[in-house]
Design goal:
The chain is of the alpha+beta class. It has a single domain, classed as Gcn5-related N-acetyltransferase (GNAT) (Aminopeptidase, 3-Layer(aba) Sandwich). Helix content is 29%, strand content 32%. It has an eight-stranded mixed sheet with strand order 1-2-3-4-5-8-6-7, with helices on both faces. 26% of the residues are buried. The mean pLDDT is 94.
Length: 171
């Protein structure tokens, strides 16, 4: 097994969309074309993982994220980490995170991430804690707003806890 991490290319959009479509996930070509435009404008970096030259997963780094704490403190955020089920448990997500953290450490002493709180994110939650990520202390958000005690919400992909990790800045 040969794992390769590289940057998103414009022609990856259809390949990625079709790969996720085959497992029943709706990830339109337009999403990855937008990611490519953001990367070309230096707003983000998208890392693509391939195993034996076959698309396995990706991760996006937002250099200027919208989340208020990260924006205030100029903390880059890893976003949208996805590995196809057939490639899970092979170190793909860890390799993507390793490369992202190395890239971010060149410019920032800290990295952020938002993780969903429903059971579909259980593996990711554990991975981030094991990697040294801790809650940022601001609470849980739902649909872009902090929730309050007693508030009724839906436990969907928009229910998120933000985490941060200290990095050693490298040159």
């Amino acid at each position: 097994m040969t794992l390769n991490i590289r940057y998103l290319r414009e022609d990856d959009a259809l390949v990625i969309s079709l790969a996720f479509s085959r497992i029943g996930w709706s990830k339109p070509v337009s999403q990855y074309k937008a990611y490519y435009r953001q990367q070309e404008a230096n707003q983000s970096t998208v890392l693509i993982a391939e195993i034996d030259d076959q698309f396995a997963g990706y991760l996006k780094i937002a250099w200027k994220p919208e989340y208020v704490l990260f924006e205030e403190r100029n903390i880059p955020e890893t976003q949208d980490l996805n590995v196809l089920p057939e490639f899970r448990r092979r170190g793909v997500a860890s390799a993507l995170m390793d490369d992202a953290e190395v890239m971010i450490a060149r410019t920032s002493p800290e990295v952020g991430i938002g993780v969903g709180l429903h059971p579909g994110y259980n593996v990711a939650q554990r991975m981030y804690v094991r990697r040294g990520y801790v809650p940022d202390g601001r609470g849980v958000m739902w649909r872009g707003k902090f929730i309050t005690e007693g508030q009724n919400i839906i436990a969907d992909d928009d229910l998120v806890l933000h985490l941060t990790k200290k990095l050693e800045v490298t040159s």
